[in-house]
Every structure is written in C-alpha cells, then in structure tokens.
Design goal:
It contains ten helices and 16 strands. With about 325 residues, the chain is α/β, with parallel strands linked by helices.
C-alpha cells in the first residue's frame, strides 16, 4: 500500500498555527505519520523508542516541569530534544515560550510552532487532520450518492445505467458526490470517505446528452463534497440463467481498502424503478445498522408459528 505525505506548511495553515521559528526546510518539510507525541519522558532524558517523525506537542504540564529547572539545565533538555530533528515542535495552551527553546530550535534547525488551543483539543484536531491527509486511498469506477443520509456507492459495467439512476435520485431530493470516478480514503477504523476528483466535481456524464453540471442545473443542495460509504450497490443486466437473492438472508460485503462494506447486487431490466429500489436499499441498510433485519424477522416469525402449531389462520 502506498505511503502518503503532507506538507508541514499546509498543516500549519489548516490548523492556524503560528510559526515561532521556521527551519530551513519549512516550505519542503513533509509529515508521513498521523501519530503525535508529548515528550514528557524525553525532557527527563528517556529517549528509548522515541520517534522523531512524530509532531512533538508541549503543553502546560511540560512547561510547568521545565519552569522548575535552571536555565542551563532547561537549555540542555531542549537541545537534546531538538537535536533528534523532530518534524515540528508545537507549544499549546499558552505554554511559556522559553528563550532556551527558541535558541535550541534555531541552532538545531527545527520548526517551532505555537497555538492557543488547549493541548488535548489540539492533539485531537491534529491527529484527525493528519489521518485525513495521510489516509490510504484508492479510486473506483462508479457513482457515489447520498440517499437519506446514507452514502451509497453504485457500481457496475459501463453503460448499465449508474448515472441515469443517480440523476433520478438527485431529482428526488438526494445528493450527488461523484460520477464516474470516486476517490475513497480510509480515514479510520472501518470508515471510508468518498469524494470526487476536483477536476470533475459536480459533473455527470449522460450518454446522448453529454456532460452536465449538477450543481448549476439543480442547485447547491443537489451536491455534496464527501460522504461516508455505507453501502455498495452493484447493478448488472438481468440474466435468466442467474439466481438472485430474494430474501436478503445472505450478508454480502465488498472489500475496499481492507474494510468490508455491506453490498447487494441489483439486476436491472426495463420497467424496474431503480431510484425507488436504491432508496429502499439505503433505508433498509440503515435499519440493519440499527438492529432490525426484515428477512431475519420473517424467519423468526415463521419459526415461532411452526413451534406454536400455526395452521394458516390469521
């Protein structure tokens, strides 16, 4: 799996950090891990298992500890930290900016940043931001729509009717995220986020008509930037030689970036209302997540009736 990076300067801009000292590599510095570290133990001299690739975050606890040290001792602690070349050192929660820290950052050529945010809050935001930028990703052929709050990835062979079904859903009040190419990121445990490539965002291709701009035609309420993918619906041409699931007792999944996503296969032929079927699939998937499965409920009802000697009367 490819390993991704993000520019430190982009993270600084997104998190609204103040640059106290910019290292010589500030504009080109890259971060390749979403993990961060509070170097409390390191400031006492313990550097076993220390990872300099992690962003180092100093808060009031570390600042209070350092305040009790003499200036030359404080300088030595900062120099030992900075000489290991961490990707960046961030001072949080109005932590005191010691001159010894600035001097060590300058002499060791390390990026020194600050923020007014609470330390725990900043760590949470920083980790979420880095995970989003560094997340494993892939691009799939299909259409991604939001139906009743559920992200539904519609797949199938070219020309099977994916875009037409999505357009009908848009007309029924649902929202388009991506058509033709769907960029997918795994941003957390079992969490897939889909979006459209910037170049074709909000555009849809319809055979016989060409490209249309969904946002311009139907308004900004008809599109959305991204959505969590909750269901995969594979459209295929109806085949009389193939058996299709009629009860929904088998739980199919599609593996995307190591995440098993619930999936169903919908056979299509003239006369089937795909938009209604997709709406029903989305709502049914939500019910399953809430603990209700209509197929299992029917089987349990049938089993109870058999046990009670039901003979067919109401």
């Amino acid at each position: 799996m490819n390993k991704y990076t993000v520019k430190l300067s982009d993270v600084v801009k997104e998190l609204k950090l103040e640059v106290v000292h910019a290292a010589s590599n500030y504009d080109e510095a890259l971060i390749d891990t979403a993990d961060v570290n509070r170097p409390g133990l390191q400031l006492t001299g313990f550097y076993d298992y220390f990872d300099p690739k992690r962003m180092q975050i100093l808060g009031r606890v570390e600042s209070s500890y350092l305040k009790g040290l003499r200036s030359d001792d404080r300088r030595m602690r900062f120099e030992k930290l900075m000489e290991r070349k961490p990707s960046a050192v961030v001072l949080c929660h109005r932590a005191e900016i010691y001159q010894e820290c600035i001097d060590a950052a300058g002499s060791c050529d390390v990026n020194l940043l600050k923020t007014e945010r609470d330390t725990s809050e900043f760590m949470s935001i920083a980790i979420e931001t880095l995970r989003r930028h560094l997340a494993p990703r892939t691009t799939m052929h299909g259409v991604l729509v939001e139906i009743h709050g559920e992200g539904v990835l519609i797949t199938g062979e070219s020309g099977v009717g994916k875009s037409e079904a999505a357009l009908e859903l848009v007309k029924r009040g649902h929202r388009l995220i991506a058509d033709d190419a769907v960029e997918i990121k795994c941003t957390g445990y079992n969490k897939l986020v889909g979006t459209a490539p910037a170049m074709i965002r909000h555009y849809m291709e319809l055979r016989g008509i060409g490209l249309i701009d969904v946002r311009t035609l139907y308004g900004v309420g008809a599109v959305k930037r991204s959505v969590n993918i909750e269901l995969v619906v594979n459209l295929e041409t109806w085949s009389e030689q193939k058996e299709y699931d009629r009860l929904g007792l088998s739980n199919q999944t599609t593996n995307i970036l190591g995440v098993e996503v619930p999936s169903i296969t919908v056979p299509i032929r003239p006369g089937r209302n795909l938009a209604v079927i997709l709406e029903t699939a989305a709502v049914n998937n939500r019910l399953k997540k809430m603990g209700y499965d209509a197929a299992k409920a029917l089987v349990e009802q049938h089993d109870r009736a058999v046990d009670e000697g039901w003979a067919g009367e109401d």
